[in-house]
Amino acid sequence: MKATHNPTTAASVTPGDLLRMAALYLRRHGWHQGTYYPRTTDTPTPPACAVGAIGMACTGHPVHHWYDLDTDERITYLAAIAAFVDYLDDFAPVFHIDEDGYLLDEHISPYSWNDEPGRTAEQVITALENAAEEWDRLHNQEGGNR
Fold it and tell me: Smallest Cα–Cα separation from 52: which of 67, 37, 40, 38?
């Protein structure tokens, strides 16, 4: 390394980190159903749905769609959502019966899961925190990737 070389000191943010930050965001700024953020608010930190909170944790501002993000943010954002979906698939599976009586086992949509009638803010926050712990359990061992 040359004397003028400045090594990177920032650690990379994992999907587990973003999920924890999203849970903290919801605790501090509130939870929302129906859209990512309420349409009638002009605050820079509006209440958010689970995915909207992941966007806020990733960028520090409201994210309305993944294609609005730059490449690095997009990769991190989508990885955190995928980790959340994996958690919901494993720990909150949804089974639907179609009109012919067949059982359909679908991947959980974090959007419909968040918006389900009767869902509470505490359930969403707990699921985000648990998904972060599950991601860490699967990907880290003593501080490193397995």
Answer: 37
Rounded mean pLDDT of 79-98? 83
Q: Where are the domains of the chain?
A: 15-145
Residue-wise pLDDT for 94-128, tens only, equals: 666 667 777 665 667 888 889 999 999 999 999 99
Q: In this structure, what token pair is assigned to residue 115?
A: 């918006």
- For 56, how many CA atoms within 13 A lie in the half-sphere containing its CB? 26
Q: In angstroms, rounded to a whole number, what is the distance separating the alpha carbons of residues 83 and 139?
A: 11
Return the amino acid letter for 76.
T
Long-range contacts of 74-79 (CB under 8 A, 24+ apart): 76/13, 76/15, 76/18, 77/18, 79/15
**Whole-angstrom distance, CA of residue 132 vs CA of residue 124:** 12
Q: Name the one residue in this structure whose structure tokens are 């501090």.
A: 28
* Integer Rg of the chain from CA: 17
CB 129 within 8 A of CB 135: no
Inter-CA distances, 61 with 41, 90, 122, Å: 13, 30, 22
The mean pLDDT value of the chain amounts to 85
